Amino acid sequence: xxxxxxxxxxxxxxxxxxxxxxxxxxxxxxxxxxxxxxxxxxxxxxxxxxxxxxxxxxxxxxxxxxxxxxxxxxxxxxxxxxxxxxxxxxxxxxxxxxxxxxxxxxxxxxxxxxxxxxxxxxxxxxxxxxxxxxxxxxxxxxxxxxxxxxxxxxxxxxxxxxxxxxxxxxxxxxxxxxxxxxxxxxxxxxxxxxxxxxxxxxxxxxxxxxxxxxxxxxxxxxxxxxxxxxxxxxxxxxxxxxxxxxxxxxxxxxxxxxxxxxxxxxxxxxx
Length: 271
What we know:
It contains eight helices and eleven strands. About 30% of the residues lie in helices and about 30% in strands. A hairpin with a 2-residue loop joins β4 (about 135-140) and β5 (about 145-150). It is globular. It starts with 5 loop residues before the first helix and ends with a helix. The chain is α+β, with helices and mostly antiparallel strands and about 270 residues long. It has a seven-stranded antiparallel β-sheet, sandwiched between helices.
């Protein structure tokens, strides 16, 4: 299911409640943001824990913690309740907010036919949040691009680079996807299609090297979708063919927990 912009999520949740709740939407979010910032100041981020690398088929190895939206989700829900919007739909909306912004989330997934459980950490980027398994990955914030890369990189240069990059463009998703498809035309295999899962938008996928005949053929996958501000999020995933059921599946599952926060932030800064 696609991840709609936050403004729509807030509006839908509160419209199902009361007209009074809609009139006070800005006040609710301003209170939430203030409480979150207070909670953050009282609970500074803990130092990153080191994990030993893990290996299996191929090579399976394993930033900044979320700031504004991490610490106070439970407190935020309490604030909304004290404003007396206690209808069942509004409570359901509050529960959804708590689920999205829990500092940690236990993730169960199947990789290469084997079940796996991890405790993923919430990370904040420019106008979004996402959960990351910090035993394998780390977030690196660069100018205009957030990069999720392996915490322990292979020393053997036979393995193509593995990473996921998140950026934004000031054009609509369809146009951005078309441009990316043109840029990848030198690859032996490239295709672009609209998708509804793991997000609603466009997928542009290319396979390099032999076009899918060798284990180390590089795979490039872009997800392009509406950022709620007249532009697009562009998520680039890179791994190699043999890792499609490993790193490819991990990146796919990460995108299921990608949530846009730009419109929520706009609501909280209104005067």
